[in-house]
Every structure is written in structure tokens, then in C-alpha cells.
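Exercise 7b. C-alpha cells:
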């Protein structure tokens, strides 16, 4: 696997650590900004809306920009948003900061996934996506607990400053580890990339991704108050629970990444069924510590870890271009919006268990969107998509780095 793929994962790690930070510091931020916990939850929604709407627009502007230059520019914008959050004097300023960081993060996801597809062949795109998305899982495992711990010890503003430093480190790694000019099979063309959105299979894939992530975030957005107010854990225990949850997502991502290329739809069906059961179980048993922790870990194993399979499905339905990847990421983020927004409304109406039941319901809906892929026509379509045309085979056959290979140096096949 090219080194650049791992560097891209580091960038995702920085982005996700900031995105999830709010979920880990809800009570502290609510007190510091003099607002309710549900209003802090809406910051997650605002971040997600900015990603969904602003990310694709920004990606259009970056379509002809060399990938590394685009990534560095997005790091700069992301840094501005985090500094603004660290110095926010009131809720509106914090809201603006989350919008800025959300737009930058979404475009970064699109560029990173497209570049990973460019640097690897079609048969390895599931694994490459899993490697890049390891940044998401490690953000849950390490970034979120780290930010939560810093926020609890030194104040929530310090957590945003820490993310700012992490952003600078990721930008430096990108400058050194990502090729200055990544070779692509074709010159980017807006009209060509837009044509894939005419395919119904693309929209079914987007719908599934939205509902899978929505089901997970209905619970995860409010894991702190659920675990402290219902289960009875202290606020100091929450970072440890988040570490365990993050470890489960890393393990799940490794497994799904291995299966995504060959069993794209079946792995999602199994994951969605398991997630629905875990979410419903947590809603019933949140007041009992041991089952509650076990069910939380189960959600970590089969929730956001479906990302590699979701990405492969969307790319096979359409292509691996920047616009499709960014649009798909927008629909994934739409799931965050549905989960956090509807979850907040459910809490206000029915209490802290309500978003868990909501998540189980969204998982059942996700299963319905997957059933369309089990028809004979859908299987035939996937078979055609899996067989590249002769014209594209040569372009996609091997991973490519922009840097020339010196005589006697190992080529891409040796990585």
C-alpha cells in the first residue's frame, strides 16, 4: 500500500478528532457557553450540515487543483476554524467555527478517497479505503478520548488548541508524504463526473450510507449523557469508555476492509442487522453497566465500520472521482445530521433512551435499501461494474505515485 495512503489517514484522524470533540465535551461546553446540552448537540448537526452542503461546492472549486495542493489548502482552512473555536466568546461564534471546519473536513474526505483510489488498483480500493478510514476509527479510539481528557483537565478550549497543533502536524506529513503530482487516468472533467449521478444505483448506495451512519450517530452523539445519567458512570470514566468504543471501531474497520471488495453488500446486511440489535438492546439495558458497555462496543464494531463497504459500493455504482466521493461523504454526513438532530429532538420529547430506539429504527430502514441489491438485476449490474473495460484496465491496473522510480528502485508492486 503506498505511503501516501497512510498519510491521508493521518489527515482524516485530525479532522475526525475535531468533529467528534463536541460529543465528548458536551456538559463542559454547555456550561462554558451558557447553553443547554441539546444546543451543544446541534453543533454536531451544524458541522454535519456544513460538510454536506459546503463540501461538494468546495470540491468543485478544487477539481483541477493538484491533490496535494488541495489537501494543504484544506488544512489551512480547517486550522482557521479550530482556532476560531478555541477563542469563541459565545455560541454564535462557536457555530461559525464549526461551519468552517465542517466545510474543510468534507472536501478533505473527498480528495483523500479519490487520491487513494488513484494510487491503488480497482481490486484494492476496499482495502485502500479502509486504510484511509483508519483515520476515522483512530480518531474515535485516540483522538476523541485525548481531546476529552484534555478538555476535562485543562478546559474545553485547550482541546481545540490541541486539535490545531495536530492539524499542523498532519499538514507537515502531507507535504512530505503525498506526491506533488498524483498521476490520474484522465483529466478531471466536471460534466463527465456529473453523469454518474444519473444512475439509480448511486442513489440507493447513498441512501444506505445515510441511514447506516444515522442509526449509529443517533446513539453516539449522546453517549456521554447516556452513560453518565442512565448507566451511572462518572464523567471521568467516559474517556475510558470512548477508548474501548474506538478500539471496537478499529477492529471492525479492519474486518470490513478485508471483506468489502468481495462481499460488498452481504457485509453491510450483516452489519446493519447486528447494529439494529445492539441499539435496541442498549435502549432496554442502558441502566445496567455491564450489558450497556458490551452493547456500546457492539455498536462500535458494526456502525461506522461499514464505511469501506459503503465506499466500494458507491464507487462501483458510479466511479472513483472526486465529485462522487465528496457527494457520497455528504450523504454519510447527512446521516450524522439525522442522527444528532433527530436524536436531540427525541431526547427533548421522550428522554435519553429515545435516540437509541431511533437508531434501531434507522438501521431497519437501511436494511430495506440494501434489499434492492439482492435482486437478480442488481447482481447482474454489479458483475458488469466489476469487469472494467479494456480501455480503463491499463489505467487502473496498478497503483501510481507521481514521483519517478529510479533505476534499481522498487516499483509500486513491491510496496
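Sequence design result:
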Amino acid at each position: 500500500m503506498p505511503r501516501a495512503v497512510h498519510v491521508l489517514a493521518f489527515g482524516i484522524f485530525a479532522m475526525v478528532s475535531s468533529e467528534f470533540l463536541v460529543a465528548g465535551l458536551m456538559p463542559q461546553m454547555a456550561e462554558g457557553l451558557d447553553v443547554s446540552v441539546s444546543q451543544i448537540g446541534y453543533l454536531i448537526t451544524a458541522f454535519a450540515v456544513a460538510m454536506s452542503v459546503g463540501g461538494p461546492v468546495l470540491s468543485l472549486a478544487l477539481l483541477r487543483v493538484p491533490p496535494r495542493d488541495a489537501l494543504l489548502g484544506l488544512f489551512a482552512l480547517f486550522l482557521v476554524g479550530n482556532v476560531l473555536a478555541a477563542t469563541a466568546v459565545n455560541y454564535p461564534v462557536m457555530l461559525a467555527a464549526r461551519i468552517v471546519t465542517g466545510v474543510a473536513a468534507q472536501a478533505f474526505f473527498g480528495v483523500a478517497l479519490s487520491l487513494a483510489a488513484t494510487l491503488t488498483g480497482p481490486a484494492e480500493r476496499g482495502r485502500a479505503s479502509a486504510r484511509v478510514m483508519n483515520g476515522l476509527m483512530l480518531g474515535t479510539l485516540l483522538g476523541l478520548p485525548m481531546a476529552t481528557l484534555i478538555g476535562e483537565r485543562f478546559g474545553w478550549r485547550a482541546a481545540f488548541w490541541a486539535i490545531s497543533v495536530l492539524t499542523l502536524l498532519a499538514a507537515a506529513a502531507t507535504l512530505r508524504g503525498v506526491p506533488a503530482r498524483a498521476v490520474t487516468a484522465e483529466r478531471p472533467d466536471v460534466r463527465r463526473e456529473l453523469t454518474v449521478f444519473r444512475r439509480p444505483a448511486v442513489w440507493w448506495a447513498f441512501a444506505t450510507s445515510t441511514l447506516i451512519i444515522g442509526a449509529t450517530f443517533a446513539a453516539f452523539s449522546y453517549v456521554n449523557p447516556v452513560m453518565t445519567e442512565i448507566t451511572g458512570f462518572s464523567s471521568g470514566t467516559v474517556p475510558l469508555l470512548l477508548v474501548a468504543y474506538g478500539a471496537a471501531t478499529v477492529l471492525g474497520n479492519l474486518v470490513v476492509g478485508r471483506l468489502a471488495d468481495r462481499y460488498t453488500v452481504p457485509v453491510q446486511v450483516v452489519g446493519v442487522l447486528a447494529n439494529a440489535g445492539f441499539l435496541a438492546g442498549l435502549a432496554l439495558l442502558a441502566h445496567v453497566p455491564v450489558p450497556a458497555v458490551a452493547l456500546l462496543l457492539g455498536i462500535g464494531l458494526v456502525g461506522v465500520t461499514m464505511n469501506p463497504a459503503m465506499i466500494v459500493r458507491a464507487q462501483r455504482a458510479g466511479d472513483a472521482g472526486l465529485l462522487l466521493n465528496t457527494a457520497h461523504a455528504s450523504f454519510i454526513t447527512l446521516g450524522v445530521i439525522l442522527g444528532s438532530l433527530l436524536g436531540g429532538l427525541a431526547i427533548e420529547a421522550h428522554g435519553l433512551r429515545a435516540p437509541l430506539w431511533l437508531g434501531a429504527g434507522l438501521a431497519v430502514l437501511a436494511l430495506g435499501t440494501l434489499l434492492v441489491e439482492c435482486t437478480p438485476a442488481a447482481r447482474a449490474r454489479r458483475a458488469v461494474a466489476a469487469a472494467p473495460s479494456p480501455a480503463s484496465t491499463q489505467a487502473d491496473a496498478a497503483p501510481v505515485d507521481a514521483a519517478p522510480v529510479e533505476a534499481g528502485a522498487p516499483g509500486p508492486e513491491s510496496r
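Instructor comment: The chain has one domain: 3-175+198-387. The chain is about 80% helix and 0% strand.
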